[in-house]
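Team,

Forwarding the record for the chain on the shared tracking sheet. I've put the sequence and predicted structure together so nobody has to dig through attachments.
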Amino acid sequence: MLVLFFSNLSALGLVNLNDTIKTNDLSYLKDNPSKNIKKVEIRVAVFSKTIYMVSCENAFYESLNDYSWIVGNTQYNFVVDKIYDKDVYSGKLSTKNFDVLVMPGGGAGGGCRKTKWQVNRPSVYLWRKNMINFIESGGGFYGVCGGTWFLCGFDKPPRSFAELKTHRSSLGVSCVKFERNEKPSRNMIFSQLIGNWDQIGAGAAYMLYSGWDFGPTQIYPSCLYINVTVNRDHAFFDDYLDDTVRISWSAGPRYVVPEEPDREVWVLARLPEEEFSDNESTRIHYWRYTGGIQGIIKGIFKHVKKDKSLFGIHLANSWYMASDWKKTDKIIETNCSNKPFMTAEIYPNENKSRIFLCSGHPEAGIFFGGEVIELPDTRSNNLYNGLIGWDNYSDPDETVEDELTYLWWMIRRGVAWAAKLNENDLPPIYGPSQVSDIYPYEQNLSFNLIGNSVVSDGIETLDLLYKYSKNNDSWSDWTYYTTDSDDCDGWSWAFDSPNGTGYYQFCSRRRVRAGDEEIVENTPKKGPDAIAYVKKN
């Protein structure tokens, strides 16, 4: 199944639709009380405790909260609440209050796990118990990058204190595991101080070396912008157009899926076939710290000078500003080729919780083209300014795909899937509408089609377009068929196969009326939303 890319940016939130309204009468924006539509709320909890590092929980909140779409005569709406440790302790995180838990990476998931490894502490025991109960009771889980650490442990026994903390913090409710690094993973700062500069892990090195001075023109080079291979046989990707999707990856884990799992589990996407360390545009070398204690002391003064205060000074900040770092001759071996990048699974009990894990960052923007560069080796290299960067990328404002919100459909579809929605009711991928999949593939001359459309301000209509082929080889141009101009009973069209027996492709085109102006939000792309073979009755 294929969907359309929309031409108007309002659906992505890049243009405020109200800016185009040319009248002060906004009465037409009010809900129509006569609508015969079933309304379903999807209650989402976004874990929002930030510790040690930045987190992106706000992007998850913004991408989900009050996002609404109609499939047929059912309207779905995400209702989002941020929750914190105190809410987990108090029992607020339960299936009575929420359908899905979203665990961001960075400080929310990756950082917080560092405080949850002492499993015998009463507070940690209670926290873990309530988390596990939520999933075992049927609550869905959607996690990205460091936010997936809570669900999985290592595929082999831990060999260092850092690995032990990560392994013990796992809730153990996922059958997916993390692949252990070839060398023991250790605390990044401690490893460098004692000379173990090659024991921080490949992903951690890309993040550590990328720089922490996020100025207004910086492109967040801690990410590798990679094309992962997708599994279009699963409902999550069956509306997607291509065999790969570009996404940012920053110190994310490499997943291991058991050969004989105790549940249904799918690999939704895999890392590229070519190793990052074999690709000249993505390979980097290990760097080692050579400044000693004197360099850290200099880092303290640099931090005081920058912040004009001693408040908040600690070893980590001083360490990022300490110099000098020297580039070694050793290339970092990534060992990532074709490893699972995104997974989905069903928890094996009567409640059948759905668990979605992603090693990358769909909440972040992406950039096309480009390569990793290593900065010149000088006497003042430091982590704060960065040792590597991302260069020669496309203009961030060149296309819609470059926008920050471009991959938010991954968040919405993943959370909707985890909430146990019908697999044909997931939110659209390429804009504000699509035609839902047609089942069965073979249809009689007359049959009904269902529309799937995002809810937004304005008076909406939904056009149906089709292509026809007698031999499933040569196809006609897109042809307008009809319009559903009344969404009071949802979106649908009655189709009478104007060309008779043969193959048909379908797409939708949403129109929004803002005052006296009508905006057409979908234009046909390179393929259909839905397909069917029509036979004689």
